Amino acid sequence: MIRDDMIMPNVRVSVLIHAVGKRILEASTEIGNIEGVKKVHVLVGPFDAIAYAELSSIDELRQLLDNIHNIEGITRTETCIAI
In terms of C-beta density within 10 A (0-12 exposed, 13-18 middle, 19 or more buried), how is residue 36 classed? Predict the structure, then answer.
């Protein structure tokens, strides 16, 4: 079981992002400024963007997702953790 306080060095995540309308361009800039985010790409396809991040704890992952969901226009995300 993973505890909230466990340190997981070099946790790499990909966050697939849905947004409303043309808001994704502005949202992707905001996402790129979030701590831990290394790259953001706007996509054409079933998702509107993908963000790549490197984190060190479950708390950092929670904070990353909270920050993304607090951006205007973001409607849904799916997170993939690289193992």
Answer: middle
- Beta-ladder partners of 53: 13, 37
Q: What is the pLDDT of residues 24-44, one digit of tens each?
A: 999 999 999 999 999 999 999
Tell me the pLDDT of the chain averaged across its residues.
Answer: 90
What sign does the CA torsion over 32, 68, 73, 79 have? positive
| Spacing of C-alpha 40 from chain mean position | 9
Question: Residue 83: its pLDDT value, please?
Answer: 82
CATH of the domain spanning 7-82, picked from 3.30.470.20, 3.30.70.920, 3.30.360.20, 3.40.50.300: 3.30.70.920
